[in-house]
Amino acid sequence: TPSTDQLLFALRLCLAIALALYLSMWLALDRPYWASLEVAVMIQPAPGLAVVRGFARATGTIVAGCAGLAIMGFFGQSYELSAAALALWVAFCAFWANVLRNNLSYGFAIAGFIAGVTVMLGHSLSTPPFHIAVARVSECVLAALVTAAVNVLFSPPVGIRNYFNSRLALLRDLGREFVGLAGLSSHQ
Q1: What is the tens place of the pLDDT at every residue in 139-187?
Q2: CA 1, CA 110: separation in Å to the nearest integer?
Q3: Please, are residues 108 and 115 in contact by the beta-carbon 8 Å criterion?
Q4: Which residues contact 152 (CB under 8 A, 6 or more apart)?
């Protein structure tokens, strides 16, 4: 039988998917189902993991949208040149996805994959690549925000407390670093 934590995670997943689908339909986004699929891919059992994964996915998608638009802008008139440019971009992203670890690796993998989606759909659909990129980015960012909010707000109290305590510790450490840097620059 599933544990209480597993049941709560399943409820958070269902809530986040439903909320992302509802918001993307309410905002009249092009493909509302993309937002709900993004949630299913991004959600994690721990609140901090969901926030970081969502940030990496949203950032990778934004970079991918820009890369796909650049490829289509420079080489959109030629399938061969756009395929070659896309292959170079995907190779670049695959290299960094393999060199780096964790969410940086994930962000590069997404940047390569989604740029491919933008370029391929730009060639095969009558929809302009700009609209494809904007739709993909807006649905991904919406999904990342919904996933993070639902996972943070509806996690078990211990998970929420740990998440906020780790964020406060991070802010304290950053404050100490800035104070140290300010002290160094005033002595020079």
Answers
A1: 989 999 999 888 888 877 776 677 777 778 878 888 888 888 777 666 6
A2: 35
A3: no
A4: 47, 50, 51, 160, 163
